[in-house]
What does this fold into?
Amino acid sequence: MPESKHILQRWPPLQAGGLFLLLYGVSAWLGMRLTPPGEHFSAIWPPSGVLLTALLLARGRHWPALLAAALVLEPLASAPGHWPTPGTLLLSADNALEALVGAFLLRRSVGLRPSLRRMRDVLGLLGLTVLLCPIISATPGATILALYGKVAWVDWWRQWRVFWVGDAMGVLLVAPLLLSWGAEDTVRWPRRRVVELGVLLLALVLTVNGAFQWAPATPSPHHPLPYAAFPFILWAALRFEARGTTLALLALAAVSVAHTLQGHGPFALAASDTLEATSAAATTASLLFLQSFLAAVGGSGLLLAAAVSEQGRAREKSERLNAELSQSLRELAATQRELVRRERMAAVGELSASVAHEVRNPLAVIANSVAALIRLSRPEANSTAWELLGVMGEEVERLDLLVNGLLDFARPLSPRLLFQPLGPVVEGALDSALRSENRPGPFLVTRALDPEVPEAPLDAQLLHRALNNLFLNALQAMPQGGTLQVGLGHAESPEGPPQAVITITDTGTGISPEVMRRLFEPFFTTKALGTGLGLAIVRGIIEAHHGQVAVKSTPGEGTTFTIRLPLTAEVPRELPRESPRDAPRA
Ligand code: ADP
Ligand code: MG
It folds into this structure.
């Protein structure tokens, strides 16, 4: 039985076999108790359901042992204290054959799952093992009795019916119950559901008991009271699927059979009401009527339960598919946004590159000319001209910075990743930022650089530029001075290789939510003399290293930038080691 297991299939074979012997013996004894005195076949023969279940759950190689045990046990349990005779052995072989054929057909054609949550499982069980197989075994069964002279040949047809109905009821009442309650792929019920099941069973027993107690024992063909059981079976099927239905059916059968055997209720016939010769035969006839009622109720209940289960599974599946679809759509939208961003970046980059190239040469000429003019002019001669020259010099310097920033931003990034220690790169970038940011401060700089961080694949020059931008931003965010903390460590990443982690924390102005939203946009700046390209460059460089940048900031308190870089590269490990040429150019 693929995909779905039964709890007994996890038991050791010896233990499961022991349980089978116990159940089989008890059910055979019970079956005998349900045989009206003077009759040969039981009105309900539960061992047929027990044996069928055992064969369905056991491995094929255990079948011979199970069948042999059933063959011997049935005559012993049904006639305690008597040795089996050839006749009783033949009868029990006939019963074993019935279970064998049923289990074989169900396994082959249905692939039955014990939870009975599929229509095909219930249809297979009802059609093959409740209807068909008992017919196959009733024929030899009645014949064996007649051959051994236990019944008259004229009685053959009646014996055949009793045999068929008894076995069919045994399968219908026992097999679905044992299968569904041990199945592992069933839904777990919350406590309230369990209480509800208890209430349902109690109400069913009380109602049916009342109906059978007070219904007159006359053979009225349209007695309304048995129908009182229907709402309970529907309730069980709708709310508790196969497990609830099998239990409700068992309760219904127990109460109604007990009453009918005592001659109570709408199915109980007296000998005078029927064509039967003896009162035992009349009881059997009553039980046959009752069985057809129970079979109809039980079969419909189990089918309804399977339909409810299938509907539930279909709903679950469509909900799961829906969730997956929404997730894919969200991912698609994010990818699309990222694509648009990258395209825009590429366009901005191209434009920046051409502008920067056009501006760079004339700017160099202007810068040289201004420098020459400053050298040639005498300050005291014309002080306004001198001042203006000074302003020109400053602005030319600023334009130069912008052009260099544009070129940095627009240059296609093709990092040369070499395994090397991160510490010196971090130190180098920090030192050059501290040197170039010549504002008064006072700055307190703390470094926590773990020397154990393994070498990482990186382009020292590019990473220097990125870190330098972050250090400059941090220092510029603390115009009144403050503390700059620099950290370097490493961490395991849940999805991917271990990472080096660089943190840069300042106690500066912090970043407002509006600025945060546009932080990495090129040309976005809040500074009078800013270019707004620093963080765009940082992001480009870190992404080229397959790393990530994250920001945390509290306005008024400060900001932390965290950079994560993979410690193993998608590029092969046997990369060339660092050579002096690749040391960062600050
Ligand atoms: P620029 O420094 O030229 O303004 P950036 O791209 O480097 O451009 O930074 C963009 C903006 O992000 C800055 O103008 C500033 O508002 C904000 N910012 C960046 N880093 C920090 C920081 N450490 N603290 C506060 N604000 C910051
Ligand atoms: Mg900056």
Remarks:
- The two ends are 70 Å apart (CA to CA).
